[in-house]
């Protein structure tokens, strides 16, 4: 099968959209399919033998390192020349809308993957455009042949936008990379600074949409050593307000896996996650999780069994949840063990194979398929 992936983000940018596209392309190549990637901004023109078509872009205001794709006739030319069986729209917003229009002109079926709560993103950046953005995103998905959502919460978001025939497609986790065996006692000891300290960490972009300023609540918990893995525009503010925290910068590959596994507790403060991949990665690393009772984590955390959920509307809830884990090593162990068992079957190979057989195949053959059950 020939698959054209029009994505809002790709390497060298590293984020959830990029990582998902990368895993999809890896598996498509491994199983004998032919992918093409269309992406914004400068970067590589070939990924593992798959051509990458680069189109015009601009930096996101307030976050210049994030490239926004712009209307570009190169998108339609690339699709016309490649002649795909299906067009995969990865988190379609701007470039994805261009890809959708081109695909409709060329009479090509589309699979639109909802991955970013862009309306919530706009709210966090104070853009006062949440309603308009939601209408735009809803229109893109309604005009696509099929829409996939990563969680039941994101399905509900799409329903509010008028998108109702939505199918569930979750994310895989790299079980060959993340695991408890990656824990480095010497790294943990270096971070903890004292034997009685519990290392609590956040992994991800240091950006407003992740609500990382709430990590100041975690830093107030007695006995905590806070570690932040990642980078982004909020880092200067966090460094000023968290002088005792450890900032590692962005880590990848084995370094990232070792950092995850060397934590005692993982915290994610953002409540606008459609899935929250880092929760899965922490669980696969054998680390207990604290996440908001909102968005994607609702599907990933069984409260009291595979992690803890806190109430994001309660300014003390996050601190209480972290305190309960800091004070109870046995609880940390039980949550970590149950969560690790839960993620063992969630391989990227299985997830991408499902995408190909159940979703690409259905739209390419013109079959309606079965919508997401309640």
UniProtKB/TrEMBL annotation:
Residues 14-176 form the Glycosyltransferase subfamily 4-like N-terminal domain. It comes from the Bacteria. InterPro entries: Glyco_trans_1, Glyco_trans_4-like_N, Glycosyltransferase_grp1. CDD domains: GT4-like. Keywords: Glycosyltransferase, Transferase. Pfam families: Glyco_transf_4, Glycos_transf_1. Residues 188-339 form the Glycosyl transferase family domain. This is Glycosyltransferase family 1 protein. It comes from Nocardioides jiangsuensis. The lineage of its organism: Bacteria, Bacillati, Actinomycetota, Actinomycetes, Propionibacteriales.
């Amino acid at each position: 099968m020939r698959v054209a992936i029009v994505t809002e983000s790709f390497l060298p940018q590293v984020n959830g959209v990029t990582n998902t596209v990368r895993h999809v392309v890896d598996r498509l190549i491994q199983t004998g399919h032919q992918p093409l990637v269309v992406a914004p901004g400068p970067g590589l023109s070939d990924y593992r033998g798959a051509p990458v078509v680069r189109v015009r872009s601009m930096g996101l205001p307030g976050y210049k390192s994030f490239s926004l794709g712009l209307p570009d006739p190169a998108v339609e030319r690339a699709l016309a020349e490649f002649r795909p069986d299906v067009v995969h729209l990865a988190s379609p917003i701007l470039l994805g809308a261009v890809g959708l229009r081109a695909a409709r002109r060329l009479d090509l079926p589309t699979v639109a993957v909802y991955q970013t709560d862009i309306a919530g993103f706009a709210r966090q950046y104070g853009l006062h455009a949440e309603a308009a953005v939601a209408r735009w995103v809803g229109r893109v998905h309604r005009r696509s042949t099929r829409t996939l959502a990563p969680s039941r919460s994101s399905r509900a978001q799409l329903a509010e936008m008028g998108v109702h025939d939505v199918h569930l497609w979750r994310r895989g986790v790299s079980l060959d990379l993340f695991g408890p065996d990656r824990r480095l006692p010497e790294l943990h000891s270096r971070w903890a600074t004292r034997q009685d300290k519990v290392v609590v960490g956040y992994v991800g972009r240091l950006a407003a949409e992740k609500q990382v300023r709430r990590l100041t609540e975690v830093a107030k918990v007695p006995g905590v050593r806070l570690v932040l893995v990642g980078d982004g525009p909020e880092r200067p503010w966090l460094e000023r307000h968290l002088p005792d925290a450890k900032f590692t910068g962005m880590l990848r590959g084995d370094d990232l896996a070792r950092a995850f596994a060397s934590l005692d507790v993982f915290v994610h403060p953002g409540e606008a996650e459609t899935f929250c991949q880092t929760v899965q990665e922490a669980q696969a690393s054998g680390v207990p999780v604290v996440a908001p009772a909102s968005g994607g984590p609702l599907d990933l955390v069984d409260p009291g069994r595979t992690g803890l959920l806190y109430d994001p509307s309660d300014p003390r809830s996050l601190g209480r949840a972290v305190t309960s884990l800091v004070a109870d090593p046995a609880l940390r162990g039980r949550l970590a063990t149950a969560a690790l068992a839960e993620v063992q079957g969630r391989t990227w190979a299985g997830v991408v194979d499902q995408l190909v057989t159940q979703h690409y195949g259905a739209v390419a053959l013109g079959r309606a398929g079965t919508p997401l059950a309640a």
